[in-house]
Amino acid sequence: MYETFNKLPTKRQDEILYAAAEVFAEYGYWRANINSICERANMSNGALYRYFKSKEKLYTYVFQHVVKTMQAAYALHEKSDCSIYELIRQMLNSVAASFQRHPAYFLLYADIWSTSMNDLADKITIEGETVIENAWINLAEKAIARGEIARSIPPKQAAYLIDSETLLFFFSLASTYHRKRFEVFLCDADGNLSVDTLINRIVDNLRTCLSPKADPE
Prior knowledge:
Radius of gyration: 20 Å
Shape: elongated
Largest sheet: none
Helix content: over 70%
Number of helices: 12
Mean pLDDT: 85
């Protein structure tokens, strides 16, 4: 479906996709228009429509690219020898670094949670979420076998808790509201949370909730 676009040099593909992500993130899907995207990508409307037949198809392609970028940032290395808690720490640091490089991608992803995006979200989010879910379940199973997570906690339940906590961290990078929520629950009385401190506290919270001490004697 996107053969013509995929023939472009990778650098040019990235330029077009990031320009589209910036416009979608800034205006939202419904107010974003092709003219603005083409201006930012330094191309004609006709050229863009040769690659993508509609705004929805462009958005879907951009979103899928964002999900792949996020999956790379998560760096869920299932063969890693480090503990699951160290892996979570590495992943959160990777996500924070990726946000600094590609903020529009994060803002675009965060916007999919808006109720105005329900129709599109129903079409495009399942595949990406399933990849991340399965990776966390696999890692949780290995962590239980190594004694890092309580045997009494089902792997899928552990995976859901980890994914929920890390997803909130992701949103805190793109959303002032979510950042403030973290500060309410985790901030010291003397000031705001730094990213490093927030990562440490998320990891500590997960270790407290999941560690084998939760197993009955």
